[in-house]
Write a structure and sequence with these properties.
By secondary structure, this protein is mainly α. The protein is built from five helices and no strands.
Length: 110
């Protein structure tokens, strides 16, 4: 009942403020934005090269040849690509967190 007693804002209000702040930071950091676009393009090119000619290999199934090796190779490459994308998505957060640590602690304690 003191002067400084207050309730925390609802979740959706906190989320909206954090989302807006992250969006502004994302737009202001032009170099990171460019790097993400380049990384997305390179990874898309990599996936297209992994599956280049994959349709031709499926045609061997009609002749009775074993295509399981090709299927496993493409599936393994796809798993490797998926893990790589997850790690690349998490890396910006890991690099920004030490910089934003003071803000996080200040907001968490309030």
């Amino acid at each position: 009942s003191g002067m400084w007693d207050f309730k925390a804002a609802p979740f959706y209000t906190q989320f909206a403020h954090l989302l807006r702040r992250e969006f502004y930071q994302f737009i202001r950091d032009v170099n990171t934005l460019k790097a993400r676009f380049v990384m997305s393009f390179i990874l898309a090119l990599l996936v297209s090269l992994i599956f280049l000619g994959a349709g031709n290999e499926w045609g061997n199934a009609v002749t009775g040849e074993d295509v399981s090796k090709e299927v496993k190779n493409h599936s393994g490459a796809l798993v490797l690509y998926t893990v790589n994308v997850m790690m690349l998505s998490a890396q910006p957060l890991l690099l920004v967190f030490p910089i934003e640590r003071a803000v996080f602690i200040r907001e968490y304690t309030v």
